C-alpha cells in the first residue's frame, strides 16, 4: 500500500472514530433534552444511526478527502519526488540534485541530501585522483624493481666471474707457499718463515672469501647442485671433528661428541660445511672450556646441536646474525675476522636440504647453542627433499 493511501485511511479512521464517539456517547444524552419528542431509547438509537450515516457522507468523507489531498500535495508528493531522485543518485549519478524549495523540514531534508551528494562526489573525485596517483607510483616502483633485479643479476654474474677468476691464482699461491715450506725450492731461512706464514693465512682467508661468495652467488641465482644420499650423521661429524681438533688443541679447548647411529638423507659436503662453519665460529669465540656436538631425534628430523662455553651473543646481535656480510660485534681483541657469510650460507644449505638452522640459546659470558636439522633417511620429509631437489641433483648415492 502506498504512503498516500495509508495517510488517507488513517485520516478517515480518525474522523470516523471521532464521529462515532460523539454520536453514540454524547448525542444520546443531549438529544432527549434537545428533542423531547422521543419517548424511548430505541427510537433515539435509530435516529442517531441515521444521523451517523448522513454525517459520514456529508461531512466525514469530504473532510477526509480534503485532508488527504492536502497531505498528498504537501507531504506525499515531495517524499515521492525525493525517493525518485535518490534512486537516480543511487545509480551513480552524483550530478543530480533535489530541486525542492521550501522552508519546512522537507526543504531542509532536500538541502541536506544535496550537501551529502556533493560531499560524496568530492570524496569520490579525491579517491579517483589518489588511485591514479597510486597506480602511477606503483608503475614507477615496478619499473624501479625491474631495474634493481637487472642490476642484481649483473652483480651476481660479476661476483661469480670474479670469484672464479680469483680462486685459481689464490689456489696456486697457496700451493707454492706449501712447496716453499716443504723445501722444494731450497732451504727456508728463519727470517722468511713468519712473513710466509702470514701470507699463507691471508691466502687461506681469501680462498675462503672467494668460496663463500661463490656459494652466495649460486644460492641467489638458484644454481646450487646437490649430491644426495643416505649417510651416517656420526661419521660425517667425526670427519669434521678430526680436521678441527688441532685448532681446539692449540687453544686448550675440549672438543667432544657423542655416538650417533642415525642415518640422514642429505648432501654430505654441504652437511659437513654447515657443521664446520658452526664449530669454526665456536672455536673463534671460545677461549676456554669445551665445544660439544650432540644429536637428538625430532620426528622426521635429526637435530645436530653445537654448544660452546664462549663469549655468548647479545639479543641485539641475534636479530642480524644470519644476514649477509654480518659479523658479531665484540669488544674482545684478537678475534680473527671472517667473511660474514658463513651463517647465511649454512642456513640456506640447511633449508634447501629440508631442515633449518637456528640459535637455540645464548648467554653473554656463558656460551651459545646452535642447532641445525636434517631429514632422517626413509621418512616422508626425506622423500619430499629428493623430489624438490631432483632437477638440482648431480648424483644420488
UniProtKB/TrEMBL annotation:
The UniProt keyword set, sorted, is:
Coiled coil, Kinase, Membrane, Phosphoprotein, Transferase, Transmembrane, Transmembrane helix, Two-component regulatory system
Q: Which CDD domains match?
A: HAMP, HATPase_EvgS-ArcB-TorS-like, HisKA
Which superkingdom, per the lineage?
Bacteria
Where would one find coiled-coil regions in this protein?
131-161
Residues annotated as domain Histidine kinase: 161-378
HAMP domain: residues covered: 73-125
Q: Which GO terms describe its cellular component?
A: membrane
Protein species of origin: Candidatus Daviesbacteria bacterium RIFCSPHIGHO2_12_FULL_37_11
**Residue spans crossing the bilayer:** 7-29, 49-71
Q: Does 4Fe-4S show up as a keyword for this record?
A: no
Q: What is its main location?
A: membrane
Q: Which reaction does this chain catalyze?
A: ATP + protein L-histidine = ADP + protein N-phospho-L-histidine
In the UniProt record, the signal sequence range is none
Give its E.C. classification number: 2.7.13.3
Which Gene Ontology molecular function entries are recorded, alphabetically? Answer: phosphorelay sensor kinase activity
Name recorded for this polypeptide = histidine kinase
Q: Recall the taxonomic lineage recorded for the source organism.
A: Bacteria, Candidatus Daviesiibacteriota
Keyword Kinase (UniProt): yes
UniProt subcellular location: Membrane
Amino acid at each position: 500500500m502506498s504512503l498516500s493511501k495509508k495517510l488517507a485511511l488513517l485520516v478517515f479512521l480518525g474522523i470516523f472514530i471521532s464521529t462515532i464517539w460523539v454520536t453514540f456517547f454524547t448525542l444520546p444524552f443531549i438529544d432527549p433534552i434537545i428533542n423531547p419528542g422521543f419517548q424511548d431509547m430505541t427510537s433515539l438509537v435509530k435516529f442517531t444511526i441515521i444521523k451517523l450515516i448522513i454525517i459520514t457522507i456529508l461531512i466525514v468523507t469530504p473532510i477526509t478527502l480534503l485532508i488527504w489531498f492536502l497531505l498528498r500535495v504537501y507531504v506525499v508528493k515531495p517524499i515521492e519526488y525525493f525517493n525518485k531522485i535518490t534512486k537516480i543518485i543511487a545509480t551513480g549519478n552524483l550530478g543530480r540534485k533535489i530541486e525542492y524549495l521550501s522552508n519546512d523540514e522537507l526543504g531542509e531534508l532536500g538541502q541536506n541530501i544535496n550537501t551529502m551528494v556533493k560531499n560524496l562526489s568530492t570524496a569520490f573525485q579525491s579517491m579517483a585522483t589518489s588511485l591514479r596517483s597510486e597506480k602511477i607510483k606503483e608503475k614507477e616502483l615496478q619499473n624501479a624493481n625491474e631495474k634493481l633485479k637487472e642490476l642484481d643479476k649483473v652483480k651476481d654474474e660479476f661476483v661469480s666471474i670474479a670469484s672464479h677468476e680469483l680462486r685459481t691464482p689464490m689456489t696456486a699461491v697457496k700451493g707454492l707457499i706449501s712447496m716453499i715450506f716443504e723445501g722444494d725450492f731450497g732451504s727456508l731461512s728463519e727470517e722468511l718463515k713468519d712473513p710466509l706464514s702470514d701470507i699463507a693465512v691471508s691466502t687461506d682467508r681469501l680462498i675462503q672469501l672467494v668460496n663463500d661468495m661463490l656459494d652466495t652467488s649460486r644460492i641467489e641465482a638458484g644454481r646450487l647442485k646437490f649430491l644426495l644420499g643416505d649417510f651416517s650423521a656420526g661419521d660425517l661429524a667425526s670427519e669434521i671433528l678430526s680436521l678441527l681438533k688441532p685448532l681446539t688443541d692449540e687453544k686448550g679447548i675440549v672438543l667432544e661428541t657423542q655416538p650417533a647411529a642415525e642415518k640422514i638423507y642429505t648432501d654430505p659436503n654441504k652437511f659437513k660445511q654447515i657443521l664446520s662453519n658452526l664449530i669454526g665460529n665456536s672455536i673463534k669465540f671460545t677461549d676456554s672450556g669445551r665445544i660439544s656436538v650432540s644429536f637428538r631425534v625430532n620426528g622426521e628430523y635429526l637435530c645436530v646441536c653445537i654448544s660452546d662455553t664462549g663469549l655468548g651473543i647479545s639479543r641485539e646481535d641475534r636479530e642480524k646474525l644470519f644476514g649477509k656480510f654480518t659479523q658479531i660485534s665484540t669488544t674482545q681483541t684478537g678475534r680473527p675476522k671472517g667473511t660474514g657469510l658463513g651463517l647465511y650460507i649454512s642456513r640456506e644449505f640447511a633449508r634447501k636440504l629440508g631442515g633449518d638452522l637456528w640459535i637455540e640459546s645464548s648467554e653473554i659470558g656463558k656460551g651459545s647453542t646452535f642447532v641445525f636439522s636434517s631429514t632422517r633417511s626413509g621418512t616422508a620429509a626425506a622423500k619430499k627433499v629428493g623430489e624438490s631437489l631432483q632437477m638440482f641433483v648431480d648424483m644420488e648415492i
